[in-house]
Amino acid sequence: MSNSMTQSRGSERSSYVRDMFTRIAYRYDLMNRLMTGGQDARWRREVIRRASLPPGRNLVLDLGAGTGDLAFEALRQHPETTSVAADFTLAMMHVGRHRRNGRRVHWSSADALKPPFTDGIFDAVVSGFLLRNVLDIQKALAEQYRLLKPGGMMVALDTIRPPDNLLSPLIRFYMNIVIPALGRLLTSQADAYIYLPESSARFLRAEELSARMAAVGFREVNFRRKMFGVVAIHWGKK
Ligand SMILES: C[S@@+](CC[C@H](N)C(=O)[O-])C[C@H]1O[C@@H](n2cnc3c(N)ncnc32)[C@H](O)[C@@H]1O
Fold first, then answer.
1. Which of 11, 96, 198, 214 could make an S-S bridge to 67, C-beta 3.0–4.6 Å?
2. Is 0.70 surpassed by the pTM of this model?
3. Domains in the chain, CATH or no CATH each
4. What pLDDT, in 10s, does the model give residues 190-201?
5. How far is ligand 1, taken at its centre, from the CA of residue 129, in Å?
């Protein structure tokens, strides 16, 4: 079922993604910590460091924010930041809003393919595990470019299609067997954690994502692989 969903197009897939995150919202944070062995917190710290927010007052957008981990991390590293968290799944933002400091984040209902913000207003646009889900990656990247001030940084953390190497069988076992089992156990929503490995396997390789970023205008594009190449942090400057 989810296999056809990772391949399906248009509003059907958007509704599926929104419905899936609605069903797992209440266990989403716990699942992240368990699946990554707590590493995701370190990656998020790096995402915000690489966003190079200017000192003093600044504006950061966490797109596809979910429960707002990156928006919260921006506030933690830069308490003077105005942190906007935007997502199209209200249930995820609802969980985030009830977290500690939830009211310090500005929550916004938005589609990453047409974010309702003015051109060139953000000092940084960051995302965590968003890009793999969007229907039109080029459009999503172009929108992030549009929203940035000149010199502003875009930083994306996501699972990517891992390189083939000696570890590939182990990685496949972890992604295709361990993660769905953990998801079934903790959320009773097995399909969501079958969708995760499937959408990662179908997503771009790290070099391909860099090329897409450069194609919409980002400069100084680069990336770092994490967790045996299953995850990467990409960044680029407007
Ligand atoms: C895997 S979660 C990531 C949440 C959070 N950013 C994190 O790092 O944990 C993906 C989020 O992206 C959101 N999302 C997917 N497609 C979107 C779109 N087109 N517009 C806005 N949000 C989207 C989902 O609703 C979900 O909350």
1. 96
2. yes
3. 2-237 (3.40.50.150)
4. 888 888 888 888
5. 7
